[in-house]
Amino acid sequence: MVDAPGPKRVAVGDGRTVQLFGVRFSYKVESSDSGGSLCVLEVEIPPRTLVKPHSHSREDEYTLVLDGTVGLRVGDTYDEAGPGDYLVKPRGTAHAMWNAGATPARVVEMLAPAGLEEYFAELAPILDRKEPPATYYGLAERYGITIVDDWIEEIEQRYGVKL
Fold this sequence. Notes:
Blueprint: E1 17-20, E2 23-29, H1 31-34, E3 39-45, E4 49-56, E5 60-67, E6 70-74, E7 77-81, E8 86-89, E9 95-99, E10 105-112, H2 117-128, H3 133-142, E11 145-147, H4 152-159
Antiparallel strand pairs: 1-2, 2-3, 3-10, 4-9, 4-11, 5-8, 5-10, 6-7, 6-9
């Protein structure tokens, strides 16, 4: 039998942090905190930055915009979200987010069930070491993630953002 998680307080600035290029992922609720049911990350997206388009097969993703404006594509729909807006990105649905603004955007990402937070932790050293693309795509596949590369060029040109 698995022990139930205990209470925990994560103060502002606390929690594990992973940096993927300029995008910062701050871990607030991890799998071990929720018995595997939920992961919560605070994500800071630098100005004019695209988060790589993708879909995941195992998690539903929910986003709360805290600061700034984020552009998004979910399936074939484009939209913008500002502070206080929530986004629902069901598993199996391709999606992308970006910050076309001049200041950082901040969002809270909630993933259910948990576990995807370890993908970011494993991805950071792969990107830092500039390993071959096959390593990156292999890791994504292991976590049930499909990268949607064919969206990148169009989003970058249309919104003036870069990966």
